[in-house]
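Example for tutorial group B:
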């Protein structure tokens, strides 16, 4: 289901959306010095990641959607497992989870955004030889 060739593979492995081989990010999402920094090109298929100037500004929409999804998930978890907890507890848990997961959500938003525009090409690396 999440094998090579699917967008899910590219997103969760954080690989190039076209060849699924080259790394998309310069480092781990939680490594402060490289947080959110994308390579210029794919090291395998030479896809230019920044397709046009300010291309990744569109990923803010995805980051917003991911943030809302996290808010809903935390609210549902609170309702199921801690029904007696008050609204202040919910607010604190949302703030803590957003703070802890924001580097990951930021990284996911960029890779999801580029996967909207770039399709997987199975034979791209063979063509380039
Ligand atoms: Zn590539």
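The residue assignment follows.
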């Amino acid at each position: 289901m999440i094998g090579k060739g699917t967008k899910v593979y590219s997103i969760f492995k954080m690989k190039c959306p076209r060849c699924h081989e080259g790394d998309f990010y310069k480092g781990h999402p939680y490594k402060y010095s490289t947080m959110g920094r994308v390579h210029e090109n794919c090291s395998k298929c030479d896809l230019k990641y920044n397709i046009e100037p300010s291309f990744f500004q569109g990923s803010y929409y995805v980051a917003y959607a991911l943030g809302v999804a996290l808010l809903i998930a935390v609210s549902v978890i609170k309702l199921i497992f801690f029904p007696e907890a008050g609204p202040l507890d919910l607010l604190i848990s949302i703030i803590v989870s957003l703070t802890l997961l924001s580097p990951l959500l930021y990284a996911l938003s960029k890779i999801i955004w580029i996967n909207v525009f770039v399709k997987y090409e199975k034979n791209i690396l063979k063509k380039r030889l």
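Residues 7-127 form one domain. Compare this with the pattern of hydrophobic and polar residues in the output above.
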